[in-house]
Design goal:
48% helix, 9 strands, 576 residues, two-stranded antiparallel sheet, 2 domains, 16 helices, alpha+beta
């Protein structure tokens, strides 16, 4: 394969450091911005979480910029409200001019709305529900087509008879208007639907195009800033990448994705034979682990800068989780006191304030984000190790296809565009009413200030998680496993090294790591250690030694190798 045919992939920095692409210009941000034009429901959820509920602190934005997504969501909603108002206005005018005749066309619209409400991509949805949705969909479209064809067919013969009688010219003209007015308004509604979708295509060809998206200053969504949006964008950009994470107690890891292959283990710190142990603090262990993780950035000596592995962009920092409850105001969040909280939380081992070493890999242009939270604590001559990986799945497939959809809209023939617009008319009415209703409801909430004076709260949801697909490809699963195995191996090796250097036995730690990883991590030698691998495996040391059943992994959770399934405990609330 020559270099011309290699798919585009941003090159790692020469130092092996973080990606040169800032979060506000990442591909994940661009696709989420496109998603607010494609999916009105997603757009409204973004606005509700980031704009209406101003008392809520934003979830950590790993590899993207939530403020820019919000700006485009508001811009898309403004355009949606204009076109929806035009569609509803045309229906009202048509019903008045035709003395209610045009209202019959609302019947198929209601059927299509019912079909959309029943439709679901969830494979667990019952067959009856899916069949009912398909039937309602086809009945709605067929009814609409029948009304458009039958009404003119029935009216035209009557007009011919009246004109032939030479005494019914006025009646014939009235019938003609009753036919032409609905058809004209029908055509106008189709044009409105086409223009609304055309705005999406124009945005993808301009400010949201891959070539121009990095130029944030030229983005009209960023320039059109109301005082409220300007204030909220400043808060979001202060909070979303801060190392001090203010969380909601029910979802402490909101924004990080799905829990995946969690480790929680505890080992007794026994002095090694013939050695006097030295004090081992949490900071010493983490300082031993960190250089080993940083070395994952280094490419092979023979390859140099030709390597494009995402581990070269591996990011390592420290973060502190604080509960949002108790803050008097959102702007009083103590972001400038991070160093104080870090130093206090590192050794205290508290329940609500927790310190983590955070390791992040943003693969597939930030479409697949792997984040590993590492916590070390020593208490009562025990060492506790918590390794809590989370995976953000790729952006939804329809969002990833935004460029393809926009290209098709721009390049399709006039007949294809007309056919598409006609097909949108039956559902356009109910969709337009829903858009206007939600806009009015949001406006009422802003007017009454329902959330303005509410006490601060942690994030309820993440707009990145909302815009994520349910599964990833096999390639992505392989990458997740590779990143995690590499990171987990270095963590385990670092903890073992710290124990050994400070005069403590490491055999028990080695055994538990092997059990938890199900053989995925091997730490140097396991000589004189007893361990077992497998669901029903048993291990014994020496004659007559009691067997060890590893069907229930000691101190941790058995991993699951499928990317599409959550690992660990099956939730994203570990440690909450």
């Amino acid at each position: 394969m020559d270099t011309v045919s290699v798919p585009h992939q941003s090159q790692p920095a020469s130092s092996g450091g973080p990606s040169p692409v800032p979060p506000q210009a990442s591909e994940a941000t661009r696709l989420l911005c496109a998603g607010v034009y494609l999916d009105p429901d997603y757009r409204d959820r973004v606005i509700e979480e980031l704009y209406l509920h101003e008392q809520r602190i934003v979830a950590p934005s790993l590899g993207f910029d939530a403020a820019r997504v919000l700006a485009h969501a508001l811009r898309a909603r403004r355009a949606g409200v204009y076109w929806s108002a035009a569609v509803v206005g045309l229906w009202i005018v048509g019903c008045v001019l035709t003395s209610g005749l045009m209202a019959f066309l609302l019947v198929p619209s209601l059927l299509l709305a019912f079909a959309d409400a029943l439709h679901s991509d969830d494979p667990q949805v019952s067959t009856v529900r899916k069949a009912t949705a398909r039937a309602a969909h086809w009945v709605g479209r067929m009814t609409f087509a029948a009304l458009l064809i039958v009404v003119p067919v029935m009216v035209v013969p009557v007009m011919v008879v009246l004109i032939a009688a030479k005494s019914g010219d006025a009646e014939a003209l009235l019938l003609l208007l009753l036919v032409l007015i609905p058809l004209a308004l029908f055509a106008a509604i189709a044009v409105c639907a086409g223009r609304q979708r055309g705005q999406f295509a124009r945005a993808l060809n301009a400010e949201l195009s891959p070539d121009r998206f990095a130029d944030i200053a030229s983005d009209p969504a960023e320039r059109a800033v109301s005082p409220r949006l300007k204030r909220l964008k400043q808060r979001i950009r202060q909070e979303q990448h801060a190392p001090l994470i203010l969380y909601r107690e029910s979802r402490p890891f909101c924004g990080s994705g799905r829990a995946y292959d969690t480790w929680v283990l505890a080992v007794e710190m026994r002095p090694a034979e013939g050695r006097t142990p030295r004090p081992l603090s949490n900071r010493i262990v983490l300082d031993t682990v960190r250089p080993l993780l940083e070395s994952l950035r280094l490419p092979p000596e023979y390859a140099g800068h030709l390597v494009r592995d995402r581990l070269r962009w591996l990011e390592i920092d420290e973060c502190v989780f604080l509960p949002a409850e108790g803050l008097p105001r959102r702007e009083d969040a103590p972001y400038d006191a991070f160093a104080h909280h870090r130093d206090r939380a590192l050794e205290e081992g508290a329940e609500r304030r927790r310190h983590f070493l955070r390791v992040r890999v943003g693969g597939w242009e930030e479409n697949l984000v792997v984040t590993v939270y590492v916590r070390i604590h020593t208490q009562g001559r025990m060492l506790m190790l918590e390794v809590v990986p989370h995976v953000l799945m790729p952006v939804r497939e329809d969002f990833r296809d935004a460029d393809r959809i926009a290209h098709q809209l721009r390049t399709s023939s006039l007949l294809a565009k007309a056919t598409w617009m006609v097909g949108q008319v039956p559902g356009a009415t109910i969709r337009s009413v829903a858009v206007l209703f939600r806009a009015v409801w949001h406006g009422w909430q802003l007017l009454t200030g329902e959330h303005r004076d509410a006490l601060p709260d942690g994030p309820v949801l993440s707009v990145r998680e909302l815009g994520s697909a349910g599964t990833g490809s096999l390639f992505q699963q392989m990458d997740v496993d590779r990143y995690l195995r590499s990171i987990q191996d270095r963590i385990a090796h670092g903890v073992r090294t710290a124990l050994s250097e400070h005069g403590y036995e490491t055999g028990e730690f080695v055994q538990k790591v092997v059990n938890i990883s199900n053989g995925g991590v091997y730490i140097d030698s396991v000589e004189d250690s007893t361990f077992a691998i497998g669901t029903h495996a048993r291990a014994a040391s020496g004659a007559g030694a009691p067997s060890q059943d590893t069907s229930s992994t000691t101190g941790g959770h058995r991993p699951n190798t499928a990317l599409k399934k959550e690992k660990g405990s099956g939730s994203d609330e570990h440690g909450g």
